[in-house]
Specification:
Layout lengths: L6 E4 L3 H12 L4 E4 L23 E4 L6 H11 L3 H8 L1 E2 L4 E4 L1 H14 L3 E4 L13 E4 L7 H11 L4 E7 L2 E3 L9 E2 L15 E6 L1 H13 L21 H6 L27 E7 L6 E4 L8 H8 L10 E3 L2 E8 L1 H4 L5 E2 L2 E6 L9 H19 L2 E3 L7 H12 L37 H25 L4 E3 L1
Parallel strand pairs: 1-2, 1-7, 2-6, 7-17
Antiparallel strand pairs: 3-5, 4-5, 8-15, 9-13, 9-14, 10-11, 11-12, 12-13, 16-17, 18-19
Helix pairs in contact: 1-10, 2-10, 2-12, 3-4
């Protein structure tokens, strides 16, 4: 049974394509508004929907030990168009899911064009969508047209939409060596979000500090993409390697200043410099390296950051980066159904909501399409539980991030899916009644995450259309 009320999807990338498919499969007419090829971008090369502009990899397909592989599994269970096309056009890539980008985009374009409830409009939406569009999903991604981006910024305020993404590395808390690191806020100051020990501190003596500076200034950085070249650095988010090039003492008087801190392991020794990490999610599983945004290549980051005392065995949920982007301050602006709180007819999906990666963007599109259909039916959409990959993503972008207000602190930033976004899970005991240790413990923990998620996601899908009466 179909309905004559239309859902408008602005943007024909991965998120928009998936959102349109899910809404149409729920029985609602959908119009996908994609400005290409009428209006081109600096990155896209074709007029195809769901064009992959960078890598052709959807990353790990291991649904037993990898969070992204788990997301693949959940999307397949939910009838994802993106995953169906990816599976049909996959290429040899070891444990990763890589696709033939041309075949992948062509299949998605053909299937959307052939769907009886989907129309494709190849015109640019200049400014906000018309007021008489009852339900709108905006999924225009990091290359949102200037006119639409300006309209969204006017609607949300100057702090609502970011155009420059300075990313600091994020560390799993349980990989930090607390025989070296300690908890303390500078001068034991109590902040609005916690107590006097809100930061994890990693100390450096003089020799380690200067070796660290030498490593930074000699490391290889990534190049800006063509559309990023003209984007200037902001003084408030300079890469650490750029700060180091301004003089060897710059970092020690900036993000690595030791003032107001006392090493609880060696209280008589004054640290020459200190690296601070700040809690990044409500679960307390992830910690952000304060002021450590960087353009260094990933291999260089791993090599250099693991020379920091306390981080020698650090595992990273995300490495640093610096690039032009367009994303919302979602925790402040969006409700749990991805709607703009001040204008609930507008729903957002994909990378604009604060997720990174092809699959994560498509997954949020999947949820947005289903949510829009539920709204049209006058029903309340029950989101997947946070123990699932989809639930962990939406929880992160709408409620799992910690807003900080102290000087120099960061704000909400995009992130790939990782197990640090899931509620902690207890590692099960082995046949001998004991819990595994070392590498075996890590393997068992990942399997516990994925087993729990699969059970919970399956139960969620089996609920009546995953929708509860409002």
């Amino acid at each position: 049974m179909t309905n004559d009320r239309v859902i408008h999807v602005v943007g024909g990338g991965l998120a928009g394509s998936e959102a349109a498919w899910q809404a149409a499969e729920a029985g609602f007419p959908v119009v996908v508004h994609e400005m290409r090829p009428t209006v081109t971008t600096d990155a896209h090369k074709t007029a195809g929907l769901a064009e992959l502009v960078c890598s052709n990899s959807f990353r790990s397909d291991d649904d037993a030990a990898n969070a992204v592989g788990l997301l693949h599994w959940e999307m397949r269970q939910a009838g994802s168009l993106v995953m169906s096309a990816a599976d049909r056009h996959k290429l040899p890539a070891g444990g990763a899911l890589a696709v033939d980008r041309e075949g992948f985009s062509a299949e998605i374009t053909a299937r959307l064009e052939a769907h009886p409830l989907i129309a494709i409009d190849r015109r640019e939406i200049e400014g906000l969508p018309p007021d008489d569009w009852e339900s709108v999903i905006i999924a225009t991604g990091p290359l949102t047209s200037p006119a639409l981006a300006a309209a969204i910024r006017d609607l949300t305020g100057e702090a609502g939409l970011a155009f420059f993404d300075a990313i600091a590395p994020i560390v799993y808390r349980d990989s930090i060596d607390f025989s070296v690191a300690w908890y303390q806020s500078r001068y034991d100051k109590t902040g609005p979000g916690g107590g006097a020990a809100d930061y994890i501190n990693c100390p450096m003596d003089r020799d380690r500090y200067y070796a660290f500076i030498d490593a930074l200034t000699g490391a290889e950085a990534t190049d800006f993409k063509d559309w990023e070249v003209s984007t200037p650095y902001f003084d408030g988010c300079l890469p650490i390697e750029v700060m180091a090039e301004r003089g060897p003492e710059t970092l020690r008087h900036g993000p690595m200043k030791p003032r107001g801190l006392t090493n609880e392991h060696k209280p008589q020794e004054k640290a020459y410099a200190v690296v601070q990490l700040r809690q990044d999610n409500a679960l307390g599983t992830l910690y952000n390296m304060v002021g450590f945004q960087t353009k260094l290549k990933y291999g260089e980051q791993l090599r250099i950051l693991r020379t920091i005392p306390g981080l020698e065995k650090a595992e990273f949920a995300r490495l640093g980066g610096l690039h032009r982007n367009t994303f919302l301050n979602s925790p402040r602006l969006l409700d749990g159904r991805l709607r703009l709180k001040a204008h609930p007819r507008l729903r957002f999906a994909g990378q604009m909501t604060g997720v990174e990666g092809y699959v994560e963007s498509a997954a949020i599109g999947l949820l947005a399409g289903r949510m829009a259909a539920a709204d049209m039916n006058g029903a309340f959409y029950t989101a997947p539980p946070p123990t699932t990959a989809h639930g962990a993503l939406i929880n992160h972008i709408t409620g799992g991030h910690i807003e900080t207000t102290d000087a120099g602190s960061g704000s909400f930033q995009p992130m790939n899916l990782n197990f640090g976004l899931f509620p902690p899970v207890e590692v099960p005991k082995g046949p001998d009644g004991k819990r595994p240790r070392g590498k075996a413990k890590q393997v068992a923990r990942k399997l516990a995450y994925t087993d729990r998620a699969k059970a919970d996601f399956t139960a969620w899908l089996r609920a009546p259309a995953a929708i509860a009466a409002e």
